[in-house]
User: Which sequence fits this backbone?
């Protein structure tokens, strides 16, 4: 499919937008009128620049408030249209988007609308231009795509077709199945945008919360499928605007946008194979001693040292932590190892989704590890399921000890606010994870937004957090370890856990009646508690090391959450403690 | 009136919140439960700390999902309540806020709700505690304050009353007049919050968009008036949360909060006297030469030099610009002179509203100028209307020349994003200006939010802008000069104006039919054009000097706006030009 994007979807001047869009590999653009109006480039210069960059100008948009009006407004509208046709000829644009009228002056009269659009199409035809009529979700009388199509059909002019926009269709909760009843050649254009489900005024929702397919809650792929089955063969064109995209770097947004289109097309053909588990988490540390003490207290053993690098391997059951003593600054979570049946295929899939493949610095005899970089800089290594051959890189590796900690339950990564949607789409599309609902919790100095995602059978769980905290962002990342006996783990950790206020346990006792003995134990060991309809959750946090802390969790029954009811207590205690 | 605030309304740990709230002069606090739960301070320590700071603990909140439930849930609720009563006794809190049940398990049965609340009030009475029952706007069955009051009346227990919250009442569009039918002694508590009018889910609206009275669109003063007429004599207590307040500095928020309460009380008694005009705008400049050239081209003359400071006075008609050559960095708009009938009264009024009064550095014989600092650092000088006695401070002042520029039309100030509401409340309450609707316009690298405010007869107009642009904020401030003949002004300014793209004039010609001659003139002189139902607006911009540029405007007829239709064109051109 031809891939296009509206210039309004990336930031900058029109020239900067075209450069970024071409660099990300798009085939064409929609020229958003205000981008041209505020540009010092003439339409001819824009046309030539786009051509030099290999971009077609697939659409000029939007033309507003034209149809279903009185004679004076019609005359003014036709005059305005002739000016725009002239601009389009100078640009070399052949299709004009006409949005359904939102003016209070518009009349509720489909026949009038059809007759006037037919007139517009006749005028357009004289310039070799086509009119694509679109129902805005907040159109005065026409706010449904099938209504727009009925008017187009009634007008019956070869230069008049309809434009479909996934946001306008899905935001109204309309069934997109009706698209298949529209002849493909009468769908002149298909605009794609996703959005989170929000209960708010649809115009504000559209202006501030559109996002790229796969970043929101809409079934954009479903709309594409219907359009293709209807016979549509035009571009898949992204039209996205939100407060973050408006101020993000154009080049980065354009790559994110292209990734969303690739993932969208892929969903129908070759869905990602989700990882089957965590192979390891790698921490960059200035020196391994302090974390070594903590890991020892957690029941881990140092099972090997890397043959050629200052990297230690620590293990307990299938939980593996690498301490890489090459960090110049504080401790951070640098890499995640993921088990997958086909590491080579996984990295090719990631590369297809525009993930930068990391150069392999491999000493002779070392394992051939495939790795890519996530947008937040985290390195993702793909390792073969149930075949930790990479352990052979470590000299004298010995057997991992058994203990109550059995594996990694999840990892939580902090994202810059402006890259949350981008990161969510990346992990979702590259790793084939399924996102859960967005949640929010309070930090003493701001608000944290969080979204968990998990693969089939919860074999791999990840949590993405963004924080707007006191001007900066809470920098914490964490690794959660699954314990089969958190009481035993907690006893061994005494003095190394995050102190939990007595007020928390007073409140817990008010909220839950767990019996005096259990409450006493939770209080004594500083354990947090939660439950849902599936089961119970006990957890604790360690002190923080640079940007990183560990969580120990015990899931009892089928508890599905992450203990976010206690997150505000954790954050307050963490702010109280040492902070890099 | 006693002034209180909920701890959730400022950021930080509970200890930090109490300090900031006391420093701003509040009499009491509502303890928000999560603030206590996450605090390492015991309830006794919180009680003692508040007492040491002179703060009463007026309310403990919230207690949720209690009433109108089955027997098991009732037993659990009473058990939970006993735990909370114990905490309240340790805190020394005497009133508990109970919110209407939002749980799906709640039954729609007022008699059951009343009976169970009566039971709760009996238990509370044994501890000397009162229950204040409040209708949440999103309560399952009780979402209206009069409904909550009917249940309270039915329960008929001296320790049970109602709590009113302006947000919950006004967000539902309910008539607050019914408050007066409630006996004052049964209104146990009054919570105040404002909010911008938004069409969105009321729970999200409440969580993310509450603001202090005077910052939003609600008639909070009306609610207070009804409560006072009903006989309410308890605290006026602010309960505000939004994404910005959560991360702002606690001390600053607490002052902003206190200002909102003072202004609220004042609105009923002694409203502000709005300025009658601009006396001057003062620019801090590194050196006056370049701006002197511009002002000369604009038709200004240097009419005097300050006797003791490196300040030049430039005048044309009643438009006066001071160039103060003490800036270490680039040019900025440092001060605004406002004419008012009673400068001394104006500064006392500003001080009452917590504006810092600036020390007067007055040489012998110099005019006694009263000045305060706005939250954004702008200095506001109050000068006597029609009595520019301060001109005498300038040596050899000569007569101001006449010309087509007659006065300052408006000044526009850039605000940091996190201080927009604070600044709006400050200028509104201190200067008695009336805010207009919020507008937004696109910048190539972000979005600008703007709010104009004006005094009676538009004698003083100000525009506050915030920009979220490429991680930073667009720093521009500007002074708009009113011209009676902008064509003449533009001809003299050639080469010093901001270049406007030809595409803008092509689009203007498509949108408006002003005749070929007028369009040619607008295009030739780089003038922008707008109109509304009252009249027409012609304007132009100068080049930018440091953070500052000038706008020249000509209002024809009764045009009321600020030409924001062209703002995106201006911003794109400004980004193209030299930028500090």
Assistant:
């Amino acid at each position: 499919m031809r891939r296009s994007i509206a210039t309004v979807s990336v930031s900058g001047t029109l020239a900067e937008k075209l450069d970024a869009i071409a660099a990300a590999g798009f085939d064409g653009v929609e020229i958003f009128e205000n981008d041209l109006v505020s540009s010092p480039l003439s339409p001819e210069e824009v046309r030539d620049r786009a051509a030099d960059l290999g971009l077609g100008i697939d659409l000029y948009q939007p033309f507003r408030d034209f149809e279903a009006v009185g004679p004076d407004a019609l005359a003014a509208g036709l005059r305005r249209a002739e000016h725009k046709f002239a601009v389009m000829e100078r640009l070399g644009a052949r299709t004009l988007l006409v949005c359904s009228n939102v003016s209070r002056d518009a009349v509720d009269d489909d026949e009038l609308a059809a007759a006037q659009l037919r007139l517009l199409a006749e005028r357009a035809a004289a310039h070799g231009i086509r009119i694509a009529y679109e129902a805005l979700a907040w159109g005065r009388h026409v706010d449904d795509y099938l209504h727009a199509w009925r008017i187009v059909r009634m007008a019956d002019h070869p230069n008049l077709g309809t434009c479909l926009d996934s946001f306008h269709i899905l935001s109204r909760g309309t069934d997109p199945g009706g698209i298949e009843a529209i002849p493909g050649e009468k769908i002149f254009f298909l605009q794609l945008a996703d959005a989170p489900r929000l209960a708010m005024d649809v115009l504000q929702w559209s202006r501030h919360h559109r996002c790229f397919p796969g970043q929101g809650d809409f079934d954009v792929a479903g709309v594409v499928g219907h359009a293709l089955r209807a016979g549509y063969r035009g571009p898949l064109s992204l039209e996205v605007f939100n407060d973050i995209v408006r101020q993000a770097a154009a080049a980065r947004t354009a790559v994110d946008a292209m990734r969303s289109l690739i993932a969208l097309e892929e969903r129908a053909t070759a869905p990602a194979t989700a990882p089957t588990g965590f192979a390891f988490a790698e921490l960059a540390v200035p020196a391994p001693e302090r974390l070594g003490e903590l890991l020892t207290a957690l029941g881990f053993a140092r099972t090997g040292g890397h043959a050629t690098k200052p990297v230690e391997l620590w293990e307990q059951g299938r939980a593996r932590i690498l301490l890489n003593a090459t960090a110049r600054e504080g401790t951070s979570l640098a890499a995640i190892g993921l088990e997958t049946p086909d590491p080579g295929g996984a990295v090719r899939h990631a590369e297809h989704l525009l993930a930068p493949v990391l150069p392999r610095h491999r000493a002779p005899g070392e394992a051939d590890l495939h790795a890519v970089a996530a947008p937040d800089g985290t390195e993702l290594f793909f390792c073969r399921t149930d075949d930790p051959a990479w352990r052979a890189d470590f000299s004298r590796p010995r057997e991992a000890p058994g203990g109550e900690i059995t594996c990694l339950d999840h990892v939580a990564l902090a994202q810059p606010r402006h890259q949350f949607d981008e990161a969510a789409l990346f992990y979702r599309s590259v790793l084939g994870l399924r996102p859960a609902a967005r949640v929010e919790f309070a930090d003493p100095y701001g608000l944290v937004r969080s979204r968990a995602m998990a693969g089939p059978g919860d074999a791999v769980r990840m949590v993405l957090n963004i924080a707007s905290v006191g001007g900066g962002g809470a920098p914490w990342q964490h690794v959660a370890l699954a314990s089969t006996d958190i009481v035993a783990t907690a006893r061994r950790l005494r003095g190394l856990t995050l102190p939990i206020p007595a007020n928390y346990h007073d409140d817990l006792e008010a909220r839950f009646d767990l019996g005096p003995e259990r409450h006493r134990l939770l209080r004594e060991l500083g354990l947090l508690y939660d439950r849902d309809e599936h089961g119970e959750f006990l957890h604790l946090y360690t002190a923080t090391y640079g940007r990183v802390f560990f969580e120990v969790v015990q899931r009892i029954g089928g508890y599905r959450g992450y203990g976010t009811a206690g997150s505000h207590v954790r954050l307050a205690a963490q702010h109280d403690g040492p902070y890099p």
